[in-house]
């Protein structure tokens, strides 16, 4: 049998603090004497000894990593070495004390190998321990006993052990059928037992399996990688999987597997000598590997388990453990995640470089159909096609004209070819050629604008230019937002990727791929807008993020510098600057204000002023919202943007005086009479005279018809409810008619909160004969309408709550909880009062952290202060929500008094703070 392996160099802390092998061996010997031949007693004693040793060893490594948070390699070595000592001690116990065999036969040999990541010697705090028990022939009773006893000890000390028992023939057969097993065996490492048996396996694997199958192995690994990326998402998602996601550790490990399998290297550094990586590229590899491993170790320690996803709460804790601090305009967690995404991008670049070399060495071949039927593209002089990619014919000639650094990307777009990684390396190595003189060349400006405007899919070029640093070199103002994370639940991408996603949306609209989904934006582009202005505005609309200043104001200032440099005329520059300054205006007006109020449209029209700006801002807003994430845009937002655009355009064409309440009321009554043509005149007159003017202006005729039918035979103590799916708005419309009384809005909000409904829009009205009519638009937890099958039960629960059979205040307490992963967000509360945004109402805007019972708490507080709520508009942005209330006091007047406003604000803040305590307790 084999002694404990030699101590590796450079551990995170002194070896004796991690595992004192001699002390443990002495303790085992003492335990054996005390056990007096009782196997169970001895095993129990050894488990206690190893458990304590492991606990102390892990604590020592964690302390060392805490003191040197970026020393990933010494930490992973230390965890591997500690695991080795525990595993070997367990094996030694089984072979020497529990199942001794002084003179084993030829068949009673065993070799134990570490495989997978453990075999590679890379272990995080809670990594799996994968073992191969290798025997020369079929498993003997002795070997089976040794394996069983070893595993029981390892399981009892709480190691997560994956194991297999195989002969050499089994290994060859199974690895020949399964590339996962083959990969695990590629990383085997001898631990204990018969070394000759392990060497025999190594020799036979190389000769009988690995040699000649390089191409199949590489293609299997690439297919596996593609599937993994599809499952775990791109490297730009804001809660990445550090192990399996794109640009994560598994991608780096794939490089190592391929290098070891194809080039027979034991260390990636050897690829430099073989010409696959430059020294600089290997340095990038080493930095990325160190960062990712350090992050993974801290993530395991922070969560206390083997978790691989950097969730929001873990990001904050890991950033703190690694010593990141807040900087101007950015939280520590955002600085940390920006580093993470930059390293992930570097991993992607290194992967491309190695795969290119594999293609050159005929490991990966062009698909047969493409070779037979693919047409050769006609390339401009200086370019060649290599393995289906755009390559540079002569590096020296290419660099003789720096403009070629941009022409390369244009040629890629023109031909549809992916750029060859060798060409990318050449560009990256010569970014210094893109200097101030270069940026001011008219030809460079034209080339860049052509990339945006000429080829129909600019996002392809922009993403690659961004990854290679070309975009930041040409527009230096872009560099601070490269890989910048926005630490919130609303944005799915980093800032730079969000911008590229927005431009992708715009190009899709132009390619007529979204005509059905976006009829207004599509029609605007069909009629023609200044595309230079629109694309440049989108490119820089968020360029001011990550600073202390308002990013819209700072972005407009940056646009004032960038737009002329890109060759735009003065009038175009002015429009770009205006669009960047007000790029949130339409979204805010549509989602945070009542667009049924004529004042909202009038104020928006005055701010926009021209039809050109309205058209450009509408398209930019649509692209901006859709570029936030794959699920951000929905029919609700689409209907709001569409309605605001159409009403504003109508006002601009017909004059702002066309926006008057009386005309809206007259039209609404006429529409109701037409919809209720089967009603007699007396009933129609009763319905059209019982409501005050705001009712007719605030609702569509479909709601007026519903309320007319609910009210027709309603008694004083009745509660009439109508639930229907509003497909145009991706919401369920809930209409209520009941006797009016103070606090009606709050009671309805509480009832809806109890059934798990998220309110997105609501309005209440009082009739002249003492009834209340309320319309709420609600969605389920996924932001969708409630399914039709759920509506009867929903109606029943709401009815019980309104009748007082269920106390909303008590029932909500158990549901009003903030999830653990969401507690790391900082969402300050802002409360504003606006007496100019509506002719009749004071607008109270509450911007704070979202939680299930928030709307109920706010409306209950307003009701307790005798505030009449006419309508509420709710806009949710991940963990942040903006609740906007249109209110009057008990006398029907606005809240002009500063003292009343301050008193109301104080009460609302108290309700929010109490709710936060309840939600986080």
Main features:
eight-stranded antiparallel β-sheet; Four Helix Bundle (Hemerythrin (Met), subunit A); 15 strands; 921 residues; Beta Polymerase, domain 2; 56% helix; alpha+beta; 41 helices
* Helical content class: 55-70%
**Mean of the pLDDT scores?**
89
Beta-strand content: 5-15%
Let me know the number of strands.
15
Label the overall shape. globular
What would you call the quaternary organization?
Answer: single chain
Decide which structural class fits the backbone.
alpha+beta
**CA-based gyration radius:** 34 Å
Uncertain runs: 367-374
Strand line-up in the sheet with most strands:
8-9-11-10-14-15-13-12
Count the helices. How many? 41
Distance between the termini: 56 Å
Q: Main beta sheet, described?
A: 8 strands, antiparallel
Give structural notes.
By secondary structure, the protein is an alpha+beta fold. 56% of the residues lie in helices and 11% in strands. Among the domains are: 15-211, Beta Polymerase, domain 2; 216-360, Nucleotidyltransferases  domain 2 (Four Helix Bundle (Hemerythrin (Met), subunit A)); 702-920, no CATH class. It is built from 41 helices and 15 strands. The strands form 3 sheets. The protein has an 8-stranded antiparallel β-sheet with strand order 8-9-11-10-14-15-13-12, with helices on both faces. Strands 3-2-1-4 form a 4-stranded mixed β-sheet. A hairpin with a 2-residue loop joins strand 14 (868-877) and strand 15 (880-888). The two termini are 56 Å apart.
